[in-house]
Amino acid sequence: MTLNTRNLGTDSSLTVSALGLGCMGMSEFYGTADEGEAIGTIHRALDLGVTLLDTADMYGPFTNEQLVGRAIASSQHGRDVVQIATKFGNERLPDGTRVGINGRPEYVHAACDASLARLGVDVIDLYYQHRVDKTVPIEETVGAMAELVTAGKVRHLGLSEASAATIRRAHATHPITALQTEYSLFTRDIEDEILPTIRELGIGLVPYSPLGRGLLTGTITESGGAAGDGDFRRSAYFPRFQGDALAANLALVDNVRALAEEKGATPGQVALAWVLAQGPDVVPIPGTKRTRYLEENVAAAAVQLTDDDLVALEKAVPRDAVAGDRYGDMSHIDA
After folding, report:
1. Rounded to whole angstroms, how far apart are CA atoms 215 and 246?
2. Signal peptide span per the entry (predicted)?
């Protein structure tokens, strides 16, 4: 199948595939990396019409942007059919040391130039502030990002994990095209204030971890499963994967599995179909480094959920039933 497209943003609109590809795990965090397999997965994504590729300078660090750049350069598809989204703000050193969140204007410019060089392109389609720097007024950070648009280095601006108040201030400085934040059947807190705010302002939503970091695929088990040794999801930083919380969350996944079987689909496909059904301004970016999971995710776009299905899913996974915070340390989230 070939995916349809959706539009992110109204004041500064970007047309992208209805489903994007999160590339983070191809370089770090999700076990052993295999560049050949990763590049093959990106090539297959482009063949299937998945044209929004999501990366960030901190993934690797730095190596994921290089990988995405090599994959685009070696693809049979031209640069003009790809929408590259990358991010700055989570500052790391080459050895992986985390420096902190940086939204200073001079850093914005330096980070963008470095990303362009690693990606091997002249312009970034969607440039996000990865995390809000609470020590720098958002107007200053977005003002610097707007200068990148004027310079022709960036086409559209985005924010990630920003509060409703920050989003309003940012959008008043320069049109924001998309907000990237966690959203899935397992994480729905943005529905209270953030989602209504971005819809009022005409900002698109790009949910990351739309499969609950893999929990909703049904491939995670209490003994490990798809999240084996070397996988960061098994660390204390992700409470939903620990002990009793994991057992409780896997029971919710079983509920999704039962509904998926009725649809002739996998739990992950039904979970992705639920996210896609939340509106035409929603473009999830499930991450994978394997072609078979990519193809399964793309097939989710063909899963039709009725109103009754949506109600049943929300009963199967009550909003407040998920056990554990999504991060062990939530201090980096702009609340």
Report:
1. 9
2. none
